[in-house]
Amino acid sequence: MPASADINAISNGTITSPQGFSAGGVFIGLKTRGEDKLDLAMLVSDSPCSIGGVFTTSAIRSATVDLDRERVARGQARALIVNAGIANTCVGAQGYKDAEEMTRLAAEKLGLGAEDVLVCSTGVIGVELPMSLIRSGVTQIALDADGGPELARAMMTTDTHPKETAVSFAASTGQTITIGGVAKGSGMINPNMATMLSFATTDAAVDPGFLQMTVKAVADETYNMLTVDGDSSTNDTFLAFANGQAGNPVIDDRSPDSEAFTAALHQVCANLTRMLARDGEGATRLLTVQVDGARDAIDARKAALTIAGSPLVKSAVYGADPNWGRLMMALGRSGAEAVEEKVDLFVNGVCIMEAGTPIPFHRDAVVALMSGEQVDFRVSLNLAAGEATAYGCDLTEQYVIINSAYTT
Amino acid sequence: MPASADINAISNGTITSPQGFSAGGVFIGLKTRGEDKLDLAMLVSDSPCSIGGVFTTSAIRSATVDLDRERVARGQARALIVNAGIANTCVGAQGYKDAEEMTRLAAEKLGLGAEDVLVCSTGVIGVELPMSLIRSGVTQIALDADGGPELARAMMTTDTHPKETAVSFAASTGQTITIGGVAKGSGMINPNMATMLSFATTDAAVDPGFLQMTVKAVADETYNMLTVDGDSSTNDTFLAFANGQAGNPVIDDRSPDSEAFTAALHQVCANLTRMLARDGEGATRLLTVQVDGARDAIDARKAALTIAGSPLVKSAVYGADPNWGRLMMALGRSGAEAVEEKVDLFVNGVCIMEAGTPIPFHRDAVVALMSGEQVDFRVSLNLAAGEATAYGCDLTEQYVIINSAYTT
Questions:
Q1: What ipTM was reported for this prediction?
Q2: Would you name the residues of B annotated as active-site residues?
Q3: A231 and B330: CB-CB below 8 Å?
Q4: Residue of chain B with shortest Cα separation from A367
Q5: Contacts of B190 in chain A (CB under 8 A)
Q6: CATH topology identical between A8-278 and A286-403
Q7: Which residue of chain A is at minimal alpha-carbon distance from B229?
């Protein structure tokens, strides 16, 4: 990972911040609750795009995932249609037909071939899409170069706010390259993509093979290190579109800009990951768990995710309770190699255990540290050089309340 | 598994129901809360016992686990000392010393060698045992052939009530064989033994090798199929003592009574498993998930445990919400092979999905079915003959409340 010093945050950045992308959304009645009443949206590039994508690994998955996976394999696409409210999952063969029709409707509106359009759905499982509403809805979408925020709102389900970000950096050949992104999530979030949709756009010219490789690597370090409740979803999808309008030489793995591009996409996805974690269902605090000194990166990921995903750790974070015994419990069961006498623990930078021995600490001070909007645990295993960071949130009564009455 | 028709439940059965076992408990001040103020207890057999045991697989574990594992490997023991309130975990080298001293204190009281005594602790992690309280406490314990309930109470932590059971069956040679058991648990419960302690006794004569094998097999089908919150503990231990006082010929894997003995021990552990699940922290309902038709037993276990452990499924059970989409989501991410078009789902015996297609059902009727004390999901994968049952409970606001303020 190169230094991110030369990557600039764009204020009010969104998925239409890069050149040549337009988006827009409408409300057609798929969402039955929530203030933010948009539920169908489209994204389109003025010119053909390289495409990269990663998807849920669940055996039970939305038809949209199957369709998109086929089209992403071509390496090219130009547009996206997305709805929230209904997941188009567990509806039998009708699911694939409806997903295909959604791409055809979008393609007709845009004058493209259907194979140039990708599709995502999120919401309730087991309900067929009301295609008549979608048919008329597509004709009403107004696409605009400032339309990113409409798309971000239209993809929300139990999210309390839209998630958008963008960054830019200078290519070695002088052009300014912009990367924008949006995401939705909040429950059912866990490694392997969870009920999470995220889309990124860039005006960089990027080789499709390199883009696919980078999308996978960045997702593994960001979205796949996010855990809200251990539940993964049927629909998780992360898609990246690169339209080349910045005019830079095509970026591939031998390009001088490959590292900067990877770092910038990583920053977009890490920003969105933190937003997703902080907006976990019922969450009051962002939790990050950094593990270092692990036997290898795989062990570090296991340990970080297990700690960040532990209901007992998450409940303690909610109670601002420096209950390090639970961190040790979660570390112990994670499957990562750990030697009790070597473990150091830190809470928001304060060491509370050194070499496996608790350090007497001023309890009230640590409780105060943990009472803010973010709690950072660091676990040093002191075995080797494996490192990873996981993102999560606290577990609150509100999570249970939200999820015990979702369809009722 | 043989038919359990000839296994008889014993009313008010407990760990001292089999012949030749005594137990007793005292309060020495280790527990800081809870009504049930016993926290140190002992169990002893009048004669030597074969012994079997299984333990947590956590890399961070109590010194009691290391000590017991060494002693169980000998195949023989006669007594047990157990405390609740403090886990004797993450206290450095002092932990093993204190565990050893506890067995020495019990052995001196009983006139045994220390190596004939096993030890378990449960409670807060990272606090040293106050050995002076334990030294005087051991002398005050009154051992009695009716003392099982005192031991069951003394091992409780956040449990709301003690868990005890016993069954009997007739050996092929005519003797009545009794098996009794106790357990504690309630949070931090998940496969690989969780914060769970369970002890079983029997007056059968059992070969130590066969007993160890049976303990492992039964634990895999009962305690290791129990999930309350996905968190496993540092101290989990299941020990079985067989003293031979029933006078039966020694049971081993070629004995005509081997199947009946296994079935009876299974019934004791399954009874305790259901009691543990029903008493999960904050739980209002017992949840069982039966998976059949899986590719193999391993797939069936994965699917059953993932569904029973899913926070979204558990929240839906709390809300009496027949949200089958979440079952499909959890099935999909479990890693078990599943083909959407083949899956049948049942809620308390009512089919709500057949061959992957939801069956229109009278929602109010299913909500009413789910509003009782027990919710049973059955998932038929219709692929092959793999079967498993997992045990869990609903997720409630009360779980969060209990666990956000445990040490504070």
A1: 0.71
A2: 195
A3: yes
A4: B408
A5: 333
A6: no
A7: A311
Taking contacts as CB-CB distances below 8 angstroms, the residues of chain A near B62 are: none
* Interface residue of B329, B359, B402 to substitute, partner A, most A CBs within 10 Å: B329
Contacts of A5 (CB under 8 A, 6+ apart): none
Element holding A228 (H helix, E strand): none
| Minimal C-alpha gap between A120 and chain B (Å) | 17
Which CATH code fits A8-278?
3.60.70.12
Q: For B177, list phi and psi in degrees, rounded to 5.
A: -110, 130
Encoded amino acid at B209, one letter: G
Partner residue opposite B312 with nearest CB, options A367, A403, A405: A403
CATH fold group of domain B286-403: Ubiquitin-like (UB roll) (3.10.20)
Hey, are the CB atoms on B403 and A311 less than 8 Å from each other?
yes
Which residue in A188, A309, A338 is closest to B329 by CB distance? A188
Kindly tell me the sign of the dihedral angle through the C-alpha atoms of B200, B206, B211, B213. negative
A325, B125 contact by CB (below 8 A): yes
Q: How many CB pairs below 8 Å do chains A and B form together?
A: 205
- From the list B90, B402, B404, the residue facing A356 with the nearest CB is B90
- Residue A110 makes CB contacts below 8 A (sequence gap 6+) with A42, A44, A78, A79, A117
- Report how far residue B320's alpha carbon sits from residue B47's, in angstroms, rounded to the nearest whole number: 50
Question: pLDDT truncated to tens, each residue of chain B (408 aa)?
Answer: 444 559 999 999 999 999 999 999 999 999 865 555 899 999 999 999 999 999 988 888 889 999 999 999 999 999 999 999 888 988 889 999 999 999 999 999 999 999 999 999 998 888 899 999 999 999 999 999 999 999 999 999 878 899 999 999 999 999 999 999 999 986 544 433 346 899 999 999 999 999 999 999 999 889 888 876 555 567 889 999 999 999 999 999 999 999 999 999 999 999 999 999 888 878 889 999 999 999 999 999 999 999 998 888 898 899 888 888 889 888 988 889 999 999 999 999 999 999 988 888 888 888 888 999 999 999 999 999 999 999 999 888 887 887 776 443
Rounded CA separation B123/B119 (Å) = 14
A250 DSSP assignment? P
Residue contact A325–B124, C-beta within 8 A? yes
What residues does each domain of chain B span? 8-278, 286-403
Residues 6+ apart with CB under 8 A from A93: none
Q: Which residue has the tokens 């999909």?
A: B332
- Across the interface, whether the CB atoms of B125 and A396 are under 8 A apart is answered no
Are B123 and B84 a contacting pair, CB within 8 Å?
A: yes
